[in-house]
């Protein structure tokens, strides 16, 4: 039976592993290679065992490359000393397939995937891109990430930069905004974080349910914002201060940074 080997097992790898376990994946089918003692301690708690590099030599195993961009090309060279034509899924932001392929033979199959941290709860969103000669790996990658959420296939590799800035980084933007709610709700709830958490959970689930019902976003705003009311005052202030434009600038900056990383490691 094929195994999944995470080469690099930091935060994003651990979120995927937890989601796979939640989905019923057999723990013995998940292995990792990582030198960080803190990561090793966490993975031991999940019941996931480390592997030596000889495990990489089995061509039917899926290797998930999940290191920092600055370490990606060196990691590929290390992997190539064990296997020249791996089935490799790269989670590395910005590094193109053609750059990763330089370390391997022409028979190597490489696909890029960009998951979100909500994969932990099987609520992940993963973008997948692969070249035409990697159809089988693309299919297996989609099957894998569909176990921890939803996945979309991109037609062009350049679209990965946009997805990374918009969705890959997206949860952090919302967490950043929620810090404002958290601060004000703590004052309303006498500093009780548990009560604040319950309110925020209901708050977000309510928004989620509205979207599930297919409500138009402008209609959803109009249902809340009565003429000359408190909501209208708040919305008008956000408009006057160009909050949407500033938010969009932040997303575009993340997209640009993903492209810059790609250009740095050609």
Automatic annotation (TrEMBL):
Query: Could you say which EC number(s) this protein's record lists?
Result: 1.5.1.2
Gene Ontology CC terms: cytoplasm
Class in the EC hierarchy, top level: oxidoreductase
A Gene Ontology BP annotation from the UniProt entry = L-proline biosynthetic process
Which source organism? SAR86 cluster bacterium
Residue ranges occupied by any Pyrroline-5-carboxylate reductase catalytic N-terminal domain in the UniProt entry: 4-94
Subcellular localization: Cytoplasm
Q: Where are the transmembrane segments?
A: none
Key word Lipid metabolism present = no
Question: Molecular function (GO) terms listed?
Answer: pyrroline-5-carboxylate reductase activity
UniProt pathway annotation: Amino-acid biosynthesis; L-proline biosynthesis; L-proline from L-glutamate 5-semialdehyde: step 1/1
Residues in the signal sequence: none
The family assignment reads: Belongs to the pyrroline-5-carboxylate reductase family.
Could you list this entry's UniProt keywords, alphabetically sorted.
Amino-acid biosynthesis, Cytoplasm, NADP, Oxidoreductase, Proline biosynthesis
Which residues does the UniProt record annotate as the domain Pyrroline-5-carboxylate reductase dimerisation? 157-260
Q: What does this protein do?
A: Catalyzes the reduction of 1-pyrroline-5-carboxylate (PCA) to L-proline.
Name of the protein described by the UniProt record: Pyrroline-5-carboxylate reductase
Query: Which InterPro entries does the protein's record reference?
Result: 6-PGluconate_DH-like_C_sf, NAD(P)-bd_dom_sf, P5C_Rdtase_cat_N, P5CR_dimer, Pyrroline-COOH_reductase
Q: Which residues bind NADP(+)?
A: 66-69
* Reactions the enzyme catalyzes: L-proline + NAD(+) = (S)-1-pyrroline-5-carboxylate + NADH + 2 H(+); L-proline + NADP(+) = (S)-1-pyrroline-5-carboxylate + NADPH + 2 H(+)
């Amino acid at each position: 039976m094929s195994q999944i080997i995470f080469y690099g097992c930091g935060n994003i790898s651990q979120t995927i592993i937890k989601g796979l376990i939640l989905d019923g994946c057999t723990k013995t089918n998940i292995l990792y290679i990582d030198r960080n003692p803190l990561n090793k301690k966490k993975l031991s708690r999940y019941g996931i065992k480390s592997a030596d590099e000889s495990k990489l030599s089995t061509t039917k195993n899926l290797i998930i490359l999940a290191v920092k961009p600055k370490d990606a090309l060196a990691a590929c060279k290390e992997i190539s000393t064990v296997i020249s034509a791996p089935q490799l899924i790269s989670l590395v932001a910005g590094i193109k397939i053609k750059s990763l392929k330089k370390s391997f033979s022409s028979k190597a199959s490489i696909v890029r995937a960009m998951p979100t941290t909500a994969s932990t709860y099987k609520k992940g969103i993963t973008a997948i891109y692969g070249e035409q000669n990697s159809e089988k790996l693309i299919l297996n990658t989609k099957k894998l990430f569909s176990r921890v959420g939803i996945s979309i296939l991109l037609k062009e590799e350049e679209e990965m930069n946009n997805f990374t800035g918009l969705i890959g980084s997206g949860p952090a933007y919302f967490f950043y905004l929620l810090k404002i709610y958290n601060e004000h709700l703590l004052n309303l709830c006498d500093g009780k974080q548990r009560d604040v958490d319950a309110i925020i959970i209901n708050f977000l689930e309510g928004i989620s349910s509205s979207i599930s019902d297919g409500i138009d976003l402008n209609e959803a705003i109009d249902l809340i914002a009565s003429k000359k009311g408190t909501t209208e005052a708040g919305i008008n202030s956000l408009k006057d201060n160009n909050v949407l434009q500033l938010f969009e600038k932040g997303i575009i900056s993340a997209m640009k940074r993903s492209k810059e990383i790609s250009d740095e490691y050609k």
